[in-house]
Structure formats: structure tokens, C-alpha cells
């Protein structure tokens, strides 16, 4: 069992913890120590000694500091360096935190690599998006691991939580608007993990490809749909998914909240009811660590 401690200036550690909760859900094993302007070395020392007691049951503890040489980092070194089970990392950022929390091991080199890879000149990254490499040997039929409605498309939660959890090697984005928007396509290419292949398809093309014998042979797909009405368009082209996860459908004027992250317009709710009647099973699940809710039984409550 692993614990995590975020230390830094002001409220930065708490802000990182809140961001992590948005992406991974449960962060009960993440603690924070915040250095305030009116506090000094003794305050930090006391907080870290108290925190050390709370970590007794953890086999490994990662301590992330915001600034190498800063007071929080220095205090962490003084308190935790003599104990081998503590890993000490400076330059805290979200990619390294996510890799550490979601990863199956405690390899510090992988954590540091993730932290560095997340630092990019985004203008250059948009101009030269990295393509997937190391093509896998294709055997077997296409497997759709998850179909997710998410208004944000490919974002941190998808790239760092859902992709590893599902074990997919291709993301398929189905959207009739995105396929015509060059900027949106570039942004999607930049947001995907480097080792993951990407398809951005219209509803018509997606319906054709998903029913085409031999298409995406041996690949494991995460299908991302940004708008509920896309499901209706796909049905109009003759394709229905067996199961759809409602991940993030934000509140807008005229919507009804069914779950914290699922708000539907009347016409969107009507589409879902129509597809339920045709055999599609809907769930609501924001992050992989959440239990999926049976949305078929929720929508008419």
C-alpha cells in the first residue's frame, strides 16, 4: 500500500490534491502540507513529524515538493531522507503525480519521465503531433473496451486514468463537428498519449468502419463521443452500441441533473430513452475507481 504527501508553498498542495480528485476520484491516501507566509522551519518540522506518524502503515510513501531547494523540500529531506521507504521528488506537476498514483509500481524513473514529458511548447506540439509507434502485431477481432460520452473529448482523465485502466491501443472519436474542425483535430492529436493510435470519424464513417469485417483487427478501442445526439446520428446510420458510459455531460441552460457529472436536455434524455428501448445499456461513471451506476434505472426516477 502506498501513501502520497504533497508539500509546497501557499495552497498549491491542496490545489494539486483537488485536481487529482477530479481525475482519479478517491484521494484518501494523499496528504498535504502547506507552508503559509507566517510560518517557518519549525512549523514545517512539526507538521512533517505528525505526518510521519500517520504514514506508519504504508509500505512506500512518495513525497512531492513544489520547488527544489525551497523550504518545504528542504524540510522533507531533513525528515524523510533517512527512511528508505520514502521517495523524494521535487518539481511537482500533475503528470508525475498521476503516474505515481495510478501506476502499478514504485519506479521513480517512470514518475520523473512522466513529469518531464508533460512539459511541452504547445504551439510546436500542435504543429507536429506525435504519432503512435511500435505497431503491435494484429491478431484477433476488434474489441470495443468502452464507449464514453464525454463533452471534453480527450483530456487528462481519459489519457491518464481510462486508457491505462482499459488497456486500449486506439481511441476513436466520433463527432460530425470535430471531423470538420482542423484546430479541434490538432488538439485531440496533441492530447492523446503518444503510444495510442487515434481515429477521428464522422458518424457515417464510424458506422461503416465499426461494421466492416476486419476493421481495426486485433485492436482494443476506447470510443469517445462528445455529444449525446451523436448516438442518434449513429443509430440513423444503422449502428447501435451495446453499452454506453455517460462520463461527463455538463450542465447547460435547460438541463436536468441526473448525476453530479450528468445533466441532460429534454431532447438528450429522449434520445437515451429511445436507445434504451432499442437495447442499449447506459451507465454513469466519471472515473475508473467509481462504481458504474445503472443509468437505465435512473433516467426515469
TrEMBL record:
Its EC number is 2.7.1.191. InterPro entries: Bacterial_PTS_sugar_comp, PTS_EIIA_man-typ, PTS_EIIA_man-typ_sf, PTS_IIA_man, PTS_IIB_sorbose-sp, PTS_IIB_sorbose-sp_sf. GO terms for biological process: phosphoenolpyruvate-dependent sugar phosphotransferase system. SUPFAM superfamilies: PTS IIb component, PTS system fructose IIA component-like. Residues 1-141 form the PTS EIIA type-4 domain. Keywords: Cell membrane, Cytoplasm, Kinase, Membrane, Phosphoprotein, Phosphotransferase system, Sugar transport, Transferase, Transport. It comes from the Bacteria. One of its GO terms (molecular function) is protein-N(PI)-phosphohistidine-sugar phosphotransferase activity. It is found in: Cell membrane; Cytoplasm. It catalyses: D-mannose(out) + N(pros)-phospho-L-histidyl-[protein] = D-mannose 6-phosphate(in) + L-histidyl-[protein]. The keyword Ubl conjugation does not apply. One of its GO terms (cellular component) is plasma membrane. Residues 140-301 form the PTS EIIB type-4 domain. PANTHER family: PTS PERMEASE-RELATED-RELATED, PTS SYSTEM MANNOSE-SPECIFIC EIIAB COMPONENT-RELATED. The phosphoenolpyruvate-dependent sugar phosphotransferase system (sugar PTS), a major carbohydrate active transport system, catalyzes the phosphorylation of incoming sugar substrates concomitantly with their translocation across the cell membrane. The enzyme II ManXYZ PTS system is involved in mannose transport. Homodimer. This is PTS system mannose-specific EIIAB component. It comes from Lucifera butyrica.
Amino acid at each position: 500500500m502506498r501513501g502520497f504527501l504533497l508539500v509546497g508553498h501557499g495552497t498549491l498542495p491542496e490545489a494539486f490534491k483537488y485536481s487529482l480528485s477530479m481525475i482519479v476520484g478517491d484521494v484518501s491516501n494523499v496528504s498535504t502540507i502547506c507552508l503559509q507566509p507566517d510560518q517557518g522551519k519549525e512549523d514545517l518540522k512539526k507538521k512533517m513529524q505528525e505526518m510521519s506518524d500517520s504514514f506508519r502503515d504504508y509500505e512506500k510513501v512518495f513525497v512531492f515538493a513544489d520547488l527544489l531547494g525551497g523550504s518545504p523540500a528542504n524540510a522533507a529531506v531533513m525528515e524523510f531522507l533517512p527512511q528508505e521507504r520514502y521517495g523524494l521528488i521535487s518539481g511537482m506537476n500533475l503528470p508525475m503525480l498521476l503516474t505515481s498514483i495510478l501506476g502499478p509500481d514504485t519506479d521513480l524513473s517512470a514518475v520523473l519521465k512522466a513529469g518531464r514529458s508533460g512539459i511541452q511548447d504547445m504551439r510546436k506540439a500542435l504543429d507536429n503531433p506525435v504519432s503512435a509507434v511500435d505497431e503491435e502485431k494484429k491478431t484477433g477481432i476488434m474489441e470495443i473496451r468502452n464507449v464514453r460520452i464525454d463533452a471534453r473529448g480527450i483530456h487528462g482523465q481519459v489519457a491518464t486514468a481510462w486508457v491505462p485502466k482499459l488497456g486500449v491501443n486506439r481511441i476513436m472519436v466520433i463527432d460530425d463537428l470535430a471531423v470538420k474542425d482542423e484546430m479541434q483535430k490538432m488538439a485531440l492529436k496533441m492530447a492523446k498519449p503518444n503510444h495510442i493510435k487515434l481515429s477521428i470519424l464522422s458518424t457515417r464513417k464510424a458506422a461503416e468502419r465499426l461494421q466492416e469485417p476486419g476493421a481495426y483487427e486485433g485492436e482494443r478501442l476506447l470510443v469517445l463521443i462528445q455529444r449525446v445526439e451523436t448516438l442518434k446520428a449513429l443509430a440513423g446510420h444503422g449502428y447501435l452500441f451495446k453499452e454506453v458510459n455517460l462520463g461527463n455531460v455538463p450542465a447547460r441552460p435547460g438541463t436536468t441533473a441526473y448525476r453530479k457529472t450528468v445533466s441532460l436536455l429534454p431532447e438528450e434524455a429522449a434520445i437515451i430513452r429511445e436507445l434504451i428501448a432499442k437495447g442499449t445499456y447506459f451507465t454513469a461513471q466519471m472515473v475508473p475507481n467509481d462504481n458504474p451506476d445503472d443509468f437505465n434505472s435512473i433516467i426515469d426516477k
